[in-house]
Each structure stands twice: as C-alpha cells, then as structure tokens.
Amino acid sequence: MKTLLFPLALITLLAACGGGADIDKEVLAKRAERDSLKTEREKLTAAIAEVEEWIARHDPELKRALPTVTTFALQPREYAHWTEAHGSVRADQNALVYTATGGEVRRIVVQQGQSVRKGQVIVDIDTEGLQQNVKQAESNVQLARTVFERQAKLWEQKIGSEVQYLEAKSRKESGEAQLAALKDQFRNAQVIAPFDGVVDEIFSNLGDMATPMQPVARVVALGKSSIEVDLAEDLLAKVKLGDPVEVVLPETGETVEATIDQIGQYINPNNRSFKVSLRMENGSKLRPNQLANVRIRDLDVKDALVVPSRLVMENSTGESYVYVLEEAEGIARSRKVIVKVLSAQGGELLLETTAGGLKRGDTLIDQGSRLVVDEQEVQVLRGA
Fold it and tell me: N or C end: fewer C-beta atoms under 10 angstroms in the chain?
C-alpha cells in the first residue's frame, strides 16, 4: 500500500510544477499589455490636453464662456487730498457807530448800501443846545485869557500877588480844557464813518431820539476779509501758515483763492476741532457772515499709485485687494494682489507702494473684476 502512494504523490508534484510555468507566461503577457495601454493612455491624455489648450485659445464659443474684462494701466501720477469744511466770512472792519451825546435824528445824510469816506457824516443829530454851550465856553475862555494876560503883565511889574496870577492862569487853563471837551463832544455828536466803507444798515429813523447806548448805523469795509473755519484735530499737523486754500461761494459757484493766515492753538473739547483763519482779497465779492465752502489741501504726493475706487475690493478679513492681469503664451489670467489704501478722494484711492505688490506699468482688471477669482483665465476686451 505504501509502495502505491509514493508514485501518486510524485506525479501530482510534477504536474503542479509544469502548470505553474504556463501561468507565469500568461501573467507576464497581461502585465505587458497593461503597461502598453497605460502608455497609450498617457499619450492620449497629453494629446487631449494639447487639443483643449488650442481650443481654449481659438474656439469662439468657448471664449465667450470666459469672463470678459477691461483693463486699467497703472501709471504713477500726482495725487492730492482735500479736506472740505464750512466757514463764514468776517470783515476785517465791521463797526457799529454811535452818537456820543444823543439827540434827535435831524437828517439821514446817506442811504443804506452807499459808500462813505472816513469822517463823512452818516446821520445828522440835532446839536443846537450843544452848540450854545460851545459858544458860551468860547466866551468864557476869551475872558479868562484876557484877565490872565493882564494879570501876567502886573506880576511882571511886581504888582499884585502871586496868588492872583496863579488863579488867573488856572481859570484860563480850566476854561480851555472845558472848551476842548465841548468841541470834542460836539464833533462826536454827529454819526460819522470811522473808516472808508459801505453803510450796511441804518437803525434809526428821522425824528428818533438817538442815545449813546444804541447804535445808529453799521459801516463795513469791503477791502479785505477773512474766513473762519473749524478743522478736525487730526489736521493740526497737516496745515501751516501760508498754505493755499480754495474757497467756493455756494450762491454763485465762484471759486476764489485764499491763504491760511492764522492757526488756532486751542482744541475745542466738545468737538475736537481748532479754528483757522483764511486771508483773502475779496473786493466786492464777499459779505460779512456769508457762508463759504473751503477746500484745504492736506496731502500731496508727486509719484503716487492711484486707482479708481471701483477696482479695489475687500475680503472677509477686511483686506483690500485688486486683480492684476498677466498674459503668457497668449493666455490672460487674473492674479490677486493684496493692497493697502492710504487715502481716498473723489472716487480715487491712493495705494501704498510695497515690495512684491503693485508696480509701475502693471495692468489691472477693471470692469469684470468682481466676476473673476485668483488665477482664472479671462477674455480681455481690447480697446475699452
């Protein structure tokens, strides 16, 4: 029995060895076939990619599916920022005129709006009583002078006493002082112009009783004027004496030039502002208390990167960015660049110039910038 089992085992082993050789050949063949197909697939994939790239550049239907954008050429230029404020006109000479003694308004010599010269009578006050006092004082002075002259001659001749001489001198000097005061009072009784200007308003009417406590008229000089403006505290270091300023008159739309004449050193704690006075030659253009819009240049950069505000966007973290257009091998793509906005004025933004950021000559995506993402292929609308 044992003799029979041994040959059977040997035959089974030999059969197994021979069958394994046939299986190895088949596996090797399939492996080779697989590798060949992979190689063909790689060639096809590369070929397909090349064809798709060509189609992307030349197929009109495919190009219409790309975002269409326009461009903005970034070229440094001068940038100016203006601070706008509201002010009011203040005449350098703006005076209320009074009568020194009072009296009835006998005559209004000039009309409102009429030009007057310094010393010209504006309103005539009834001063007949004062005139009588002046005449009486003149007579008293004349008598005192005569008595003094005679007493002086007698005293030179050692006639009379020194007391008599001194009393005569005192009466003369006292009378002269009283006469001078009356004449000055008479002179100031009339309402006269204190300087060359325009009679802005007359408060009294014919027949009214004018008093030293109530103004009779207002005279304004229109030669020079100043404008007072309140500016925010953060502008204190940005403005200086002599800086040019634009003043716009809202009523006429006219723009006139002015300069900063005075800068206040007091900060109002209520609104954190300080006062600035602007000096200007106005002729007849301005009126006291007239409103004016003031534009003060607080920033001036000669070689600045300035872009329209529509080009700059903001991400969820608050960073500002723009899209730069880059072209290679005929393909245009967008590239996101983070920027820092330094100032804004009239729809334009001043951007900081930093290494690795924007530079002179860059082409930015303008219209369509909100439809693209970073590294996206775009279609550029030329000539826009």
Answer: N
- Nearest residue to 44 (alpha-carbon basis) of 58, 63, 36: 36
What's 132's domain CATH number?
2.40.50.100
Distance (Å, whole) CA 131 – CA 128: 5
Tokens of 18: 């021979």
Q: Are residues 116 and 186 in the same domain?
A: yes
Same domain, 233 and 88: yes
Q: Is 237 exposed, middle or buried (0-12, 13-18, 19+ CB in 10 A)?
A: exposed
Contact call for residues 331 and 57 (beta carbons, < 8 A): yes
Q: Domain total for the chain?
A: 4
What is the DSSP pairing of strand 291-308 with strand 348-351?
antiparallel
CA distance 22 to 28: 10
Q: What is the pLDDT of residues 193-208, one digit of tens each?
A: 888 888 888 888 888 8
342: amino acid identity, one letter: L
Which tens digits make up the pLDDT trace of 111-126?
888 888 888 888 887 7
Strands 197-202 and 191-192: unpaired
Q: Which of 218, 252, 269 is the last residue of a domain?
A: 218
Spatial CB neighbours of 269, under 8 Å, sequence gap ≥ 6:
none
What phi and psi, each to the nearest 5 degrees, are found at residue 267? Answer: -95, 120
Q: Determine what percent of the chain falls in helix, strand and coil, rounding each to the nearest 5.
A: 35, 35, 30
Whose CA is closest to 196, among 217, 226, 225, 221? Answer: 221
The CA distance from 353 to 358, in Å, is 7
CB 116: neighbour CB atoms within 10 A? 20
Q: Name the DSSP letter for residue 37.
A: H
Residues 98 and 208 in one domain: yes
Q: What's the domain range around 20?
A: 2-62
- Say yes or no: 296 and 319 in one domain: no
Please check whether residue 144 is in contact with residue 168, taking contact to mean a CB–CB distance below 8 angstroms: yes
pTM equals 0.49
Q: Two tokens at 367?
A: 């219209």
> Between these two residues, 320 and 60, which has the higher pLDDT value?
320
